[in-house]
Design a protein that fits this description.
By secondary structure, the chain is an all-alpha fold. It has 17 helices and 2 strands. The protein has a two-stranded parallel ribbon.
Length: 366
Amino acid sequence: MQEYEYTFEDWLKGEIKSEDLVSLVENKRLGENDFKRIRSDQSFAYSNYIAMHLQLMKLAFYRRYEHSFAKEDLLSQQLKAVEEALKNFKADNPMLYWEAINGIDNRYKLTPPFIPFYLMASPLIDEFEEIMPTHISYYTKSNFFRWLKWLKEDGKNDTEPSFDGFSEEARNELDKINQRFERLKQLDSKRMDDYIQDLYNLPFVKERVTKLMAEQAVSTLSNYSNEQPSYNESSKGEFISYVWQDDHKEELPKLYKLMKDKYLHKNTTLKQFKAVFTGKTTENFTPIKWHDTNAYELLYFIMQLIDSGNIDGSLKRMDYIKLKACFIKPNGEPFTTDFKVVKQKVKEELSAEKQEAIDELISHFC
């Protein structure tokens, strides 16, 4: 039996990179059987996350649908919202859309530390998807839309639309992968009971997960962003803060004074406030703590600044990333809200009193 330099367990321990697998097989340094096991784990974890996330979307909607006395209206409204989200995704992410429908995605970039997060449908992945849409965003939305259409037809088709990740064969495969991760636990010499609880706190896990998320973010951006730097990015590709369009030296201190203690956290300084509105790179400004967790109020404030011409913006995907980079919750946590959805409902959900208060605030700078 031929012995190879590398094995499946070397991949589990992170001693070989996913991007090097094909060349290692071609050079007879990794066996084909081990290569197939690695690809199987990667592919299943990726599809399992889509299936589990889709199932959660179905359940969340069906709970409302089941108790509604206007089921047709609710279903039509949901179909329209998802269809609009799919159209926006295609328009905002043409390269991702093309790759998604042609089966080109990041499944084979997954590394062992990242796979458990996909198997558990971790909120960590959900937060990443909100910040930086990937192929998964389209996969889940398109399959959810297909399921909604099936539901609208009263389930006339015999088979409910689903995703292969929930098949019996897939469940058996999940059991096999869990057995393989038992081996990973042993390799890491940690107590079994603590492994899952402390998974992300393992140094080699945290390091590689963080690195992979950064690599995927850069890869996603570079795939369809070959334009010259705009107001959203510096020449190095870093995000920059908002740029006040008029006399920032005179107007920003005035705006700060009007907002202090009402819209801003009490510890917000003028220097910090000015940095968020004078085109600083991310490493040169500290996000502002909004006075509460009301995402509708925060977005309305930014919308009015844009509409009044005080800052530039179009509230596209890159603007939402900027918004999350510049403003955080009072407790220091980032806003994980889908601001694209918030924008569609902001004038309905935000009270007239709060809208009028912000309008009055912005009127000082029109």
